[in-house]
Amino acid sequence: MNLPDWKKTSVSPDQSHHLCSGKPLYDKRFDEVLKYHAPGLAPARDASGSYHIDLMGQPVYAERYQRTFGFYDGRASVVSNGRWFHLGEHGEQIYSAHYAWTGNYQEGRCTVRSESGLYSHIDRLGQPVYDAQYHYAGDFRDGVAVVQNEAGHSTHIDRDGALIHARWFADLDVFHKGFARAQDERGWHHINRSGDALYTRRFAEVEPFYNGQARAKRFDGGLEVIDERGERMLELRPGRPTPLQTLSDDMVGFWKTQTIQAGVELGVFDALPANTAEVAQRTELAERRAMRLLYGLWELELVRPDDAERWCLTECGALLGHESPSAMAYASSVWARDHYQKWQRLPDALRAEATSEKSYFKGLSGAQVATYQRAISGYARHDYAHLPETINWREHKHVIDAGGGQGVLLAQLLTAHAHLQGTLLELPQVLGTFESPGEFSGRLRALQANLFEPWPSKADAIVLARVLHDWPDSDALRILKRARQSLHPNGKLYVIEMIRPDDKPDGSLLDLNMLVMTGGRERTHSEWTKLLTDAGFHLLETRNLPSVSDILIGAIK
Question: What PANTHER family has UniProt attached to this entry (predicted)?
């Protein structure tokens, strides 16, 4: 008689018999059956008790038990009078000992629990593999099992019971693809076969690695995908900090500002890649202090250690080198020094009346002006990158960039549109740091100008990019009226500013920044419309830039 392949069988929906190709494998019906395992035997239970059946539904032996379980590695656990032990494939008892519980054989080893409640492993003949007994022992996988001592700490043992790495953890998993999940007093992480942590971060939960990635749950409830260095590769769900944590994080936000500035000022971002000793030497810091700063920058995800025990820049950290085109190193100095000091006077600024015609640059040294201009130029390169294609510049011949700093915006326009002529209007102290690009010879000129006085040039297009928010309404109106005088009758005015929404707080902190720094403000769409109307302009339309800015396009009424 040809018997079916046991691997192709399944348990019927009511668990009373087995199926093969959707048809009953035999006629008998049981109270319960479990799956077939090699060599083609399955646990079954009827009124007589529990036992094992073959592929024809026939008992393999005459004995009956309280419970029977599937065969693994040629052995099956059974229970008789509350005592657990293993049977062979013909129903023979493998060993004489009895236990309070037995597991399934895996890799020639089986976990058992003694009557005293302690765990250990036995071999295929039922002999103890080692002398030690544990408060818990798990199955073997790839020659390694997890055991737990009386203190509740877990470690790994090999098939002979020897400690793999002699390191104990609050909780532990078996190895999967060379790494194991482990929990210490700080949280969950991954370790290698030597018991060493793969990274310093800790999580509320971690999953095993799969092709070099694992899902991890942070303590704030956020989910992310990490690599084998513990670095975030993908944010799956943002965290949910408590109200106190949120408030506290906001109140100590200056920690981040000053830590970044310390890294910039000491040259850390220019020194990498390097190991800690090299960073200490290049920054003239004691090595232990350099390490503390590097760890702070690591927490901010600006630097990271690599496999060669060196520190490397992350994508964001690379923006903070002094040679980076982003100029964020200079922006860091602006925010952490001048702006930080002036923000401490916010209550006074809120109490005081607006000060008219007070330039931000008054009182700044030449070096401070240069630093500010480099920082603002970095933002301009990023924020105005799409301006050349957002507006139809073909309808213009001459563009004035009023208050345009180092002319970054104007250079972007002239590069993209060869027919344009450009004029940069700026204060003398700002033009002192300006260098006209050679490729625009004959097309770009820079003129000293006070925007409150008559302008020294006229054009058919005028750009005011983040200029008017420096000023209160009365002064912004004066600048707009001067712009109207310098705009050809059929020309257009382009005001690039963030438009604050009427019903949301977006941009309100920037609004406070303008108040404390210059006495200026951010404005809503209706406020911009009124300001332009009062200056003699008609608002034609508003367009968006991919950055935080909008473009208000106006024409002379």
Answer: O-METHYLTRANSFERASE CICE (PTHR43712:SF2), PUTATIVE (AFU_ORTHOLOGUE AFUA_4G14580)-RELATED (PTHR43712)
Question: Pick from 14, 124, 144: which is nearest to 71 by CA?
Answer: 124
Contact in structure between 311 and 294 (CB atoms under 8 Å): yes
pTM here is 0.63
Q: For the chain, which residues make up each domain, given as ranges? A: 1-94, 244-324, 385-556
- The residues facing 77 across adjacent strands are 86
Write out the DSSP string of 187-209.
Answer: EEEEE-TTS-BS-S--BSEEPPP
Q: Is 127 left (phi over 0), alpha (psi -120 to 50) or beta?
A: beta
Tell me, what amino acid is at 112?
Answer: V
- What is the side-by-side order of every strand in the sheet holding 9-11? 9-11, 18-20, 23-24
Which residue type does 301 have? E
Distances (CA, A) of 250 to 60, 241, 348, 417, 436: 71, 12, 21, 44, 42
Nearest CA-CA partner of 541 in 527, 529, 556: 529
pLDDT in tens, 11-27: 999 999 999 999 999 99
In angstroms, rounded to a whole number, what is the distance separating the alpha carbons of residues 482 and 468? 12
The tokens describing 14, both together, are 């009511």
**Alpha carbon separation from 320 to 161, 218, 235, 302, 373 (Å, rounded):** 52, 28, 23, 9, 16
Report residue 312 as tokens: 């490397």
Pairing label, strands 119-122, 9-11: unpaired
Tens digits of residue pLDDT in 91-134: 999 999 999 999 999 999 999 999 999 999 999 999 999 999 99
Paired sense of beta strands 459-465 and 444-448, if any: unpaired
Element (DSSP H or E) covering residue 101: strand 101-102
Task: Decide if pLDDT at 501 tops 80.
Answer: yes
CATH topology of domain 244-324: Arc Repressor Mutant, subunit A (1.10.10)
- Strand duo 487-497 + 459-465: pairing: parallel
244-324 and 385-556 agree in CATH topology: no
Tokens of 544: 């968006």
Alpha-helical regions (H) of 103-165: none
Q: How far apart are the C-alpha atoms of 439 and 181, rounded to whole Å?
A: 59
Give residue 357's pLDDT.
47
CATH, range 385-556: 3.40.50.150
